[in-house]
Amino acid sequence: MASSSGSQGTKPRASHAKHRSRKRGKRVPLWRRYPWWVAALGIVLAIALYIFIFVRVFVNPFSFRWNAIYGEGVDPDGFEVRGIDISHYQDRIDWSRVRNAQIKGKPLRFVLIKATEGVSMIDENFNENFYQAHQNDLIRGAYHFFIPDANAAQQARFFMKQVHAEPGDLPPILDVEKAGMLSAQQLRKAVHTWLDIVERHYGMKPILYTGYRFKMQYLNDGTFDAYPYWIAHYYVDRLEYKGPWTFWQYTDVGHIDGIGGYVDCNIFNGSLQQLQALTLQEDNVLRRDTIQ
């Protein structure tokens, strides 16, 4: 009996000891170890760091295709020849008003128009825009939006099939904004393929459009310096790019009489006579027709 009684007496003590052990081992959540304001401060700092990185990497003034993130944009002074670039995004255009439009008191001189993209897409407003620009005495040019993962030679032939440039038109334009799955070397090769085919066809060097950062990362090759450079660089009153350039797309939030909503505005780096000298000449057309 004594042995049995002793055994029963020890059980409660063991149970209490086990309960105390579990209580001592219970972990307190991390957020309860510090005052609430410490957690709030951490969240604020994390958000601030995210915003800083996002702006630094993606919304740097050298980047492009960002609408009004720095406000209404900047209209640089000191340039006489002004123009716009358009696509179906501008929807219906009142060309009778556009032909007389001005930018900072300077008449509109040229219009750069999206024609094609990839190997099969034609901008739905291209034919109308291209025709109307000519009818309204504006110097016009057509551009192709390059798809890096599509065959470059096919893209060149597709563009040439759709765009029938005439004397007085600007050289064909290649818009390169994406690398896709290509390395820098592969992209450079593909871009050169397009440029070479189109140059042989029209008898003049195409214009190359891209942003400063993209050019430095993917097209920073001396061979591309031979092509007229159309640089996209927004929300600054002067270019940081030190190399030669022909056109400057300085804002994507411009306003032009005759166009509802925003439109891209551009500057030509030279006089009107120099812009006209850049255009397709009669001998270029004759050479093209002979090759065809």
Task: Note the main attributes of this structure.
292 residues; alpha/beta; 8-stranded mixed β-barrel; 9 helices; 10 strands; 19% strand; globular; disordered N terminus
**What is the CA-based Rg, rounded?**
31 Å
Q: N-to-C SSE series?
A: HHEHEEEHEHEHEHEEEHH
Describe the biggest sheet? 8 strands, mixed, barrel
Summed up, the helix count is 9
Distance between the termini: 118 Å
Largest sheet, order of strands side by side? Answer: 1-3-5-6-7-8-9-10
Mean pLDDT: 84
The geometry reads as globular
User: Which percent band covers the strand fraction?
Assistant: 15-25%
Oligomer: single chain
Helix content: 25-40%
Low-confidence stretches: 1-12, 14-23, 59-71
> How many beta strands in the DSSP annotation?
10
Q: Briefly note the structural class of the backbone.
A: alpha/beta
In a nutshell, what does this entry contain?
The protein has helices at residues 2-25, 36-58, 95-98, 126-135, 152-162, 184-202, 212-218, 272-278, 282-291, and strands spanning 81-86, 102-103, 106-117, 121-122, 139-145, 173-175, 207-211, 229-232, 247-254, 263-268.
Structural overview:
With 292 residues, the protein is of the alpha/beta class. The protein is built from nine helices and ten strands. It has helices spanning 2-25, 36-58, 95-98, 126-135, 152-162, 184-202, 212-218, 272-278, 282-291; strands spanning 81-86, 102-103, 106-117, 121-122, 139-145, 173-175, 207-211, 229-232, 247-254, 263-268. It has an eight-stranded mixed beta barrel, surrounded by five helices. Strand 9 and strand 10 (263-268) form a beta hairpin. The longest helix is centred in the first third of the chain and has 24 residues, at 2-25. The radius of gyration is 31 Å and the shape is globular. Mean pLDDT is 84; it is low at 1-12, 14-23 and 59-71.
